[in-house]
Amino acid sequence: AAAATVDASIPRKFLSFFYELS
Predict the structure, then answer these.
(1) What is the C-alpha separation between 6 and 17, in angstroms, rounded?
(2) Within 13 Å, how many C-alpha atoms sit on residue 15's CB side?
(3) What pLDDT was estimated at residue 1?
(4) Which residues of 1-22 are buried (b: 16+ CB within 10 A; e: fewer)?
(5) What is the pLDDT along the chain (22 residues), one digit of tens a residue?
(6) Phi-psi region of 10 (alpha: psi -120 to 50; beta: other; left: phi over 0)
């Protein structure tokens, strides 16, 4: 479960990063 949380947290952070860039 922890691995799944991290796996879903990384792309979410990546999207937030691009969202703040634009």
Answers:
(1) 16
(2) 5
(3) 58
(4) eeeeeeeeeeeeeeeeeeeeee
(5) 577 787 888 888 888 988 898 8
(6) alpha
Q: Measure the CA–CA gap between 1 and 14, rounded to whole angstroms.
A: 20
Which amino acid is located at 4 in the chain? A
Fill in the amino acid letter for 7: D
Residue type, 3: A
For 20, the token pair is 């703040």
